[in-house]
Amino acid sequence: MRLILAEDSTLLREGLVRLLAEEGHDVLAAVGDAEQLLAAVDTEPPDVVIADVRMPPTHTDEGLRAALAIRRSRPRVGVLVLSQYVENRYATELLTGDPEGVGYLLKDRVAQVDDFLDALERVGRGEAAFDPEVVRRLLARSTRTDPLSRLTARERDVLADMAQGHTNAAIAQRLNVSQSAVEKHINAIFDKLDLSGAGTSGYSRRVLAILRYLGS
């Protein structure tokens, strides 16, 4: 893939550039702030942008705002956002628009190279990839609200894996159940979230379920 990396930590930025190059990816630019990120994307649009949420000058949400701007102006560019902490608002805001080709990972996950590369590949394919810890925190926050409180424990497990961006086959493997069982759980989730008639495809209902889950 053709990538642009935005990370203000020189050590982490250079380490990621080396890792990505070793994996066969083409790093078009590696920059240290949001302004440089936007300029680099305008110069040569990549397949995926990897961006830290907090970057200079205020170290608040410059990276996230740049990522959202890129999603609005270039919806075909995937965005994988990195964050030091679980920040519910940022995760929800990133998914509020078109959730295809977006990801949100904690920086600790980057050290788990296989997980990081798997998330990057999924974003590059136009899928979603959300950190399991982010999803766990959001699930804990949302179980007090209807209609999510109507879900069984197993259905919440399935929805959590859906929110991370896993396919039905991957969910079946992770939960050690059959793929048909996963499909039954997903249909039950759609029913309980009143999404049985939403959209024209299973994928559109899947996206709505994840948005309902993350945004509640």
Walk me through what this model shows.
This protein is an alpha/beta fold and 216 residues long. 55% of the residues lie in helices and 14% in strands. It has helices at 10-22, 34-43, 62-73, 88-96, 107-110, 113-124, 132-142, 153-164, 168-175, 179-192, 202-215; strands at residues 2-6, 26-31, 48-52, 78-83, 102-106, 128-130. The chain has a 6-stranded parallel sheet with strand order 2-1-3-4-5-6, sandwiched between helices. Strand 1 (2-6), helix 1 (10-22) and strand 2 (26-31) form a beta-alpha-beta unit. Helix 8 packs across helix 11. The longest helix is centred in the last third of the chain and has 14 residues, at 179-192. The model has no long low-confidence stretch (mean pLDDT 83).
What is the CA-CA span between the terminal residues? 34 Å
Low-pLDDT residue intervals, each spanning 5 or more residues: none
Treating each run of at least 4 consecutive H or I residues as one helix, how many helices?
11
Shape: elongated
- The percentage of residues in β strands lies in 5-15%
Can you describe this structure in just a few lines?
InterPro entries: CheY-like_superfamily, NreC/VraR/RcsB-like_REC, Sig_transdc_resp-reg_C-effctor, Sig_transdc_resp-reg_receiver, Tscrpt_reg_LuxR_C, WalR-like. This protein has 216 residues and is α/β, with parallel strands linked by helices.
